[in-house]
Amino acid sequence: MTRGLWLPVFGYALIHDDGPAKADLAVVPAGDFYGHRILKAAELVKQGYVPAVLVSGPAGIYGQYESDLAIPFAVRHGYPAGWFIPFPNSSLSTREEAIDILAELRRRNVHSFLLVTSSYHTARAGRTYRSLASESAGGIAFRTVAAPAEFFLPGSWWRVREGRKIVFTEWNKTVAAALGL
Q1: What pTM did the predictor assign?
Q2: DSSP states of 67-133 as a string?
Q3: How many folded domains does the chain comprise?
Q4: In the predicted model, what is the mean pLDDT of residues 31-48?
């Protein structure tokens, strides 16, 4: 009877949204098969926060890179293809992807970026990027920006099966990352 009082804590603890600010680029990590991340990033371009979006895309979806599916999705939603930079890669985790993306941002001489990811992924992704971005001389400044997530509402995630799966999986990954696994 009291679950509505304490279960939201587990949802809200996954979120760390800095909000948008002017930056050199937006970055959309892989893992959103509904398109909320790329559409949020496109809106940030439209609003003038960033000039373009680097779209990560590991292979694995029927032999295609996720970025090669995400960009046409955004174009079908009315955004110009020229706003998006595909970044196909072979990463299999948030940490591997962050290493690859940060190397690409350094190669492009990016000094600041907006990390646009699903709300439930913002805290863990932010910690991962923060630890890796500060390891290099000078680092790269960034802000996490939360995109809506299909099936995840932090105050009522347990009411939908997919919401329960999201929270369970994200907390498992959060604990594993904290343990260095």
Answers
A1: 0.94
A2: HHHHHHHHHHTT--GGGEEEEEE---SHHHHHHHHHHHHHHTT--EEEEEEEGGGHHHHHHHHHHHH
A3: 1
A4: 97
State the residue range of the domain holding 49: 14-151
- Whether 25 maps to a domain, the answer reads yes
Which residues, 6 or more positions from 58, have their beta carbon under 8 angstroms from its beta carbon? 30, 65, 66, 88, 89, 90, 91, 92, 97
Mean pLDDT confidence for 88-111: 95
92 domain-assigned: yes
Q: Which of 69, 50, 49, 74 lies closest to 59 in space, CA to CA?
A: 69
Please indicate, yes or no, if residue 162 is contained in any of the structural domains.
no
Instruction: Report the CATH number that the domain containing residue 32 is assigned in CATH.
Output: 3.40.50.620
pLDDT at 136: 58
Residue 140 confidence (pLDDT): 92
Residues contacting 91, CB < 8 A, separation 6+: 30, 56, 58, 97, 99, 100
Whether residue 3 lies inside any domain: the answer is no
CA distance 66 to 87: 9
pLDDT tens, position by position, 75-84: 999 999 999 9
Spatial distance between the Cα atoms of 48 and 45, rounded to a whole number of angstroms: 5
- pLDDT tens, 118-151? 999 999 999 999 999 876 556 899 999 999 999 9
